[in-house]
Amino acid sequence: MWTIAGPVLFAIFVWWFSTGLILLLDGLPRKTFRWSLVLSSVIAIAALFGLHHTAGQATLAGAYCAFTCALLVWGWHELSFLTGWITGPRKVASPPEASEGQRFVHAVNAILWHELAIIGMGLLIIAITWEAPNQVGMWTFVVLWSMRTSAKLNLFFGVRNLSEEFLPPHLTYMLSFFRRRAMNAVWPLCVGAATVVLVWMVQAALNPTTPAATAVGLWLAGTLLAMAILEHALLVLPVPSTALWRWAMRKPAAQPNPAATALET
Fold it and tell me: What is the pTM of this model?
């Protein structure tokens, strides 16, 4: 039983704590951002070396290490975005009169450098783990990237909970790319596809012929995928999505200006 409970509990704790730590750092005065980014960059570089080192280790320790390293690399991307260091060429809100197509172009331009950096990092991780026996780091990064991309699309097309509390004041203009509505047609497709992949991962992890280290890696990445599906559910349910990280959010929520208010439908 611990072979399942161990990686599941580990993944939940690391996901919860790392998210809270990023929010905590982002809530500090802006003069601290430089040092947070320097420290995060050093950690991310070390994590990449960790991914390279553990790529050939098909062991339980290697699976846990690769999973943690991938999360550390992802944390650098999240922090660089929330601090406003790597976002996109557009730094202003989309005007209210913009069409749906124009708003989409504006939204892409607002996060373009961030998305390209993630794609570049993903390709780097694939390269340093290519055909290696330990693919847990790659699985973890792909789960994070795909589900975060899905969340961004759903925020664009419209959901009930926009989680404005997560946006710092200097990124308030991002709210103009969101839409508040009960549901959108993309949400069930994203959640359905993610659920199918999760079921496949669970079945593979439970297969007696699956090596122990591979099974642990599947539980780690699968738990992260399950948490992402839960986050998607919170986007459309009448439940606050920030309760788990109140301890880390030590600043008032970003106050949107009229030009940056999410569209209501």
Answer: 0.92
